[in-house]
Write a structure and sequence with these properties.
Strands 1-3-2 form a three-stranded antiparallel sheet, with no helix packed on it. The longest helix has 11 residues. It has one helix and three strands, in the order E-E-E-H. It is 19% helix and 31% strand. The protein is α+β, with helices and mostly antiparallel strands and 59 residues long.
């Protein structure tokens, strides 16, 4: 948690760099895991793209 944002890290088995919602994507060394970093400043930041990626991460 930041002063005016929530920082979320979503793990995936591949990089999803084709969208603009992540501030950083890093691969965990020695694994197939890619951590996708997202900062949420406003309620509106949780748009359909973010919701879809969260659902994908939970499946």
């Amino acid at each position: 948690m930041g002063k005016n944002f929530v920082h979320v890290v979503i793990p995936f088995d591949r990089a999803h760099g084709e969208n603009l919602c992540f501030t950083k994507i890093t691969q965990i060394a020695g694994t197939d895991q890619f951590n996708h970093h997202l900062r949420i400043f406003f309620k509106e930041d949780i748009n359909d793209e973010v919701k879809g990626l969260l659902k994908l991460a939970m499946s």
